[in-house]
Every structure is written in C-alpha cells, then in structure tokens.
C-alpha cells in the first residue's frame, strides 16, 4: 500500500505528499480527486484511507488500476481477484460482541496515540508468532450488520463455522467513503446533547472534527425506555467534566449538511464514560 502520492491540481506545481500529512478536512478541501501514484508512467488516481490511531495510507479507486509496470500493480490485481469472487454474508452482532467492542473502544479512547501504537505493535508480533495462515476461506466475507437484510440460513452457517464479523474502530475525525453504509465503532468527546420526543443527537469531537450521532424513530421504537433520558448526559458532564462517547452505528452522509454522521439503532449500542444510558441515568437519579 503506497504511503505517498503526488498532489497535482492541474496548476504548475506537483508535489509529493505522505498519507499522514493529510487530515479529513484538508482532504475534503484540497486533495480529494487530485492525488496520483508516484511511480513513473503510472497515473493511477489515489484516495486516502484514514485509520484510527494508525498510519493512513493511499489506495486506488475501485475501477482504477496501476500501470502494469508499476510496483504497486501486483498487489492491486491480487486483491481484486479475491474480491470479485467473494460472497458477502451479513451477520448480526451478538449483544456480547457489541458490549466487548464498546469496552475496547472506551479503553482505547483513554489511551494516548503512542500507547495505542505500542499495543498494536505487541499484538502484531504475537500474531506473527502464534497464528498459522488460515486464509484459505477467502471466498466469503463476513460483514457485521446492525439493521440490514440478513439471510438467516447463511448467517447460521457462518456462525457454525465460528466466523464472527469484525467491527472497525474509528475516531470521530477518521470516517471516509469506505465506511459509508457500514457499522463502525465511533469514538470522541461529547460536546453537546440535544433531545426531544423520539429524537436525540449527540455531537462528538476528535481533533478538530465534529461528528453528529443521531438517535431517531427506529432507535426509540427499539428502546422506548431511553426516551427522556438523554438530558442526563448533560447533567453527568456538569459533575464529571468532558465525557467519552463510544457507539456502534451506521455511517451515512447527512442529507442537510453533506457531512458524515452516524445513526444508532439500539439502546445498548453506545456508552458514555463506559456506561449505558440506563446506568448513567441511575447514577444521576441518586443526586436528587
Ligand atoms: Zn502506480
């Protein structure tokens, strides 16, 4: 995966840039659609993949290829070969998987980037040492789903083979096109809470980016006892200071602002300071 690209906006200057020099807002404003492979004679257009506390990298667009002589050519066509024959099976995440994902996201949110990097390195080494290569079954891809269509028979088969979908962590500032329509664990600091009957919105922030997390009719239909409790988050923060939000939701683009936003569908799919809304509200209730 290339970690540098040429930035060319059609004007006179062309310069080389690394993926970590770009953040989501400069990408949107300046670089998007103007990044190319650095290899000579290769004009493949590149997009940035933003990652949570790991190095960003560049990849080609779905229907763009590197030149056959480009050093990145093989890697790309190998990947594509895999994807074309793949079948995707949607699997619903169990409550336990979701709980664990939220716990993990909360502990990540309390760590510095350096600590996370250190931990990832250790995990990587451990993996290298212990796991044998079991990538034979690349024909099917298991995708987690929150409220998408599920073929129950295929889901059962996948679970029988102990295939659990993996859920990606994203900081509020690290969402990109590849996350659209997919469930993600999003994390950030709570900056505001707004709620009314059957609707709530929590704005979270990481770095300079703000992200709206929305709770709409589908959420309240599923978790009617959450109605009226969102104001407790504000009360809780008055006593505790800045709060960490972690939630599992579906990434989409807001029809009003054009920004990324996240929709949450179930009362157990998010925590504030590691607590569910119910448990946080129970604490606030004791304050009288
Ligand atoms: Zn190339």
Please give a structural write-up.
The protein is an alpha+beta fold. It folds into 2 domains: 4-84, no CATH class; 93-127 and 143-288, Nucleic acid-binding proteins (OB fold (Dihydrolipoamide Acetyltransferase, E2P)). The chain has 8 helices and 14 strands. The strands form 4 sheets. It has a 5-stranded mixed barrel. The chain has a 3-stranded antiparallel beta sheet with strand order 2-1-3, with no helix packed on it. A two-stranded antiparallel ribbon has the order 4-5. Helix 7 (231-240) crosses helix 8. The longest helix has 18 residues, at 113-130. It binds zinc ion. Zinc ion is lined by residues 37, 39, 42, 44, 66-67, 70, 72. Residues 112-157 are annotated as: Disordered.
Q: Which structural traits does this protein have?
A:
288 residues, 2 domains, 3-stranded antiparallel sheet, 14 strands, 28% strand, globular, binds zinc ion
Strand order of the largest sheet: 9-10-11-13-12
State the CATH architecture of the largest domain: Beta Barrel
CATH level 1 class label of the largest domain: Mainly Beta
- Helical content stands at 25-40%
SSE order and pairing:
Layout: E1 4-8, E2 14-18, H1 24-31, E3 35-36, E4 46-49, E5 57-60, H2 73-84, E6 87-92, H3 95-109, H4 113-130, E7 140-145, H5 152-160, E8 169-171, E9 183-196, E10 199-206, E11 209-215, H6 217-222, H7 231-240, E12 244-253, E13 260-264, E14 270-272, H8 277-286
Parallel strand pairs: 6-7, 8-9, 11-13
Antiparallel strand pairs: 1-2, 1-3, 4-5, 9-10, 9-12, 10-11, 12-13, 12-14
Helix pairs in contact: 7-8
The protein binds zinc ion (ZN).
Residues 37, 39, 42, 44, 66-67, 70, 72 line the site of zinc ion.
